[in-house]
Amino acid sequence: MGTMDLTFDRSSLGAFLRTRRAALQPEDVGLRRGQRRRAPGLRREEVAELCTMSADYFARLERGDGPQPSEHMVAAIARGLRLTPDERDHLFLLAGYRTTRRDLQAHHVSPGLMRVMDGLADNTAQVMGPLGETLLQTPSAVALLGDQTQYTGNARSAAYRWFTDPAARERYDPAEHSTNSRVNVALLRAAVTRDGSGSHAADLADVLRGTSEEFARLWDRHEVGLRWSETKRFVHPQVGRLALYCQLLLEPDQGQSLLIFTATPGTESHEKLALLTVLGTDQFATDTE
Asked: Domains, the chain, ranges and CATH?
């Protein structure tokens, strides 16, 4: 667990933030450089938006006169500045935290995937963690699937929600529910084998075996090697049925994956996906899970 038993080094933290901001170029985060940009790197306002915080708060941290940020705020800064895992850990130490909590590490999207996502802002895409945690979504992905980044604890795992929350299945074609259940179990079994007993994957499997009769039954079948179909069928509360192609990009070092949803041009699904892309989250804010 992270603890505040180290010194909060305001001066060094500010210097580190300034250098990381100067090193981050507009092209790194999907921004246009523009002719009037004179200073190297990003502006404070741009970084603050990437970190989902106020520009004034970020400026105070850079000046070295801001309050100690929370662990979750430090994680947001690490993500916004596209820090590497080593840089992220250094940032936590400067902020006065001895170590990065495991759940916060799992929130840290790899810099490579962050750069790819920056170029996919107008597409339907999301980054997933090793246990099906949704780490980052584009606006149209939120419109398609609901905001899946809001969950905490075991509910961060898509497999856990699938077997414990009926609402998790509402946007998927009922004809595919049985197959989806089997794949969820097989993938979790692979994670338990990979991570071993005492891992978060093993704990999650134990919880689900005692919570869901369906999961327990499928777990006892010992199925392995099942994979998601490249074609996914959804039932959206506003636009109805969609058949989408799911392209998967893996980041093996951190066990993360990037999912990109597309539809065949000229089809009804393509038109519906384009509608979700244009409207984003505003039209469907009330339908997030």
From this structure: 10-108 (1.10.260.40), 115-287 (3.30.450.180)
What pTM value is reported for the model?
Answer: 0.67
Position of tokens 């369906």? 214
Confidence class of residue 100 from pLDDT cuts 50, 70 and 90?
A: low
Are the C-beta atoms of residues 287 and 146 closer than 8 Å to each other? yes
Q: Where are the alpha helices (DSSP H) in the chain?
A: 10-23, 44-50, 55-63, 71-80, 85-94, 102-107, 111-118, 139-145, 158-164, 177-195, 200-211, 213-219, 268-279
The amino acid occupying position 275 is: L
Contacts of residues 263-267 at CB distance under 8 Å and 24 or more positions apart, as own/partner, are: 267/243
Which residues, other chains included, contact 196 with Cβ-Cβ below 8 Å and sequence gap of 6+?
202
Q: CB atoms < 10 A from the CB of 137, how many?
A: 23
Using the 8-state DSSP alphabet, how is residue 168 labeled?
Answer: G
Identify the CA nearest to 263 among candidates 280, 277, 252. Answer: 277
pLDDT tens track for 78-87: 888 888 877 8
